[in-house]
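To illustrate the input format used throughout this study, we show a single complete record. The first block contains the structure-token representation of the backbone; no residue identities are included at this stage. The design step must infer an amino acid for every position from geometry alone.
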């Protein structure tokens, strides 16, 4: 433990942080990772890496994974839980008729799970060991980690909740991630020039400086993943996306008059996402890893 405290103190100038809520979330994540490791070992005879997870005393929305003396670690800022809770409580949740506090707690849980599994994906997919330095590769790694985390959490909901609440839980999952990314936009230098859309998405100099996708890109490709079909007496697509949009409109108090018509902006962002997707195969060729099949 002392070496980790020293690492936090000397390398990133942070301290460990403990809270009842944080410890409960970490315990839940650790159990899920252990469960997946056991299943994969028994089914495929492959041992995938585990990791230790700590929270650190930082109010920003962020997390990172690293390797210390051949042991993998994930560090998640307390801001993902405590400061995000304050942010969520400041929003208008008028569509939640009862149990607003419980609803926000669910958003905190899903947001924390997403951050944790995003960082675990860097370990699982070999990014942490590869230490690639090119920013294009780094953006691809972030994209892959996002896809991994979202894919896992969608399956987690479908396998661990009753069919009649799939829709509401999937809505919470995306809304949780959306508001994490929105708050990250407010703290992130990469987002400061988002008003200059064409420069931000097409200027090679700006693109090459970024080691992460823009948060607007992340919102878009994660939103695209929520296509859930259920089969009962017929086949139907759950209206998760439509409901998410209606809830965001309600939270942000938008009307038909003040909803911006930004079809052109959407095309610009979507085109950049397609370019990001095309880079995924390149990164998978560069890094040896356990088979990971999600190609969405």
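Output of the design step:
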């Amino acid at each position: 433990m002392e070496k980790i405290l020293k690492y936090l103190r000397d390398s990133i100038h942070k301290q460990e942080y403990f809270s009842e809520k944080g410890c409960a979330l970490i315990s839940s994540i650790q159990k899920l990772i252990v469960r997946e490791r056991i299943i994969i070992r028994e089914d495929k005879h492959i041992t995938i890496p585990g990791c230790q997870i700590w929270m650190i005393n930082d109010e920003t929305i962020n997390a990172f994974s690293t390797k210390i003396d051949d042991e993998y670690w994930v560090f998640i800022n307390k801001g993902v839980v405590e400061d995000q809770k304050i942010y969520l409580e400041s929003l208008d949740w008028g569509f939640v008729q009862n149990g607003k506090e419980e609803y926000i707690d669910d958003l905190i849980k899903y947001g924390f799970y997403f951050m944790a599994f995003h960082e675990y994906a860097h370990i699982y997919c070999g990014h942490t060991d590869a230490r690639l330095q090119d920013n294009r590769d780094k953006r691809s790694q972030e994209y892959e980690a996002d896809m991994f985390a979202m894919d896992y959490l969608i399956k987690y909901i479908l396998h661990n909740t009753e069919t009649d609440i799939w829709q509401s839980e999937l809505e919470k999952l995306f809304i949780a991630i959306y508001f994490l990314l929105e708050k990250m936009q407010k703290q992130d230098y990469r987002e400061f020039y988002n008003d200059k859309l064409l420069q931000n998405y097409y200027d090679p100099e700006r693109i090459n400086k970024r080691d992460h996708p823009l948060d607007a890109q992340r919102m878009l490709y994660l939103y695209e993943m929520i296509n859930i079909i259920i089969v009962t007496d017929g086949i139907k697509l759950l209206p998760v996306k439509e409901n998410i949009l209606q809830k965001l409109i309600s939270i942000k108090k938008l009307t038909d008059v003040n909803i911006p018509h930004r079809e052109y902006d959407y095309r610009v962002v979507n085109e950049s996402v397609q370019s990001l997707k095309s880079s995924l195969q390149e990164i998978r060729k560069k890094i040896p890893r356990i088979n990971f099949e999600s190609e969405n």
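Structural context for interpreting the output: The first strand starts at residue 16 and ends at 17. Residues 135-160 form the longest helix (26 residues).
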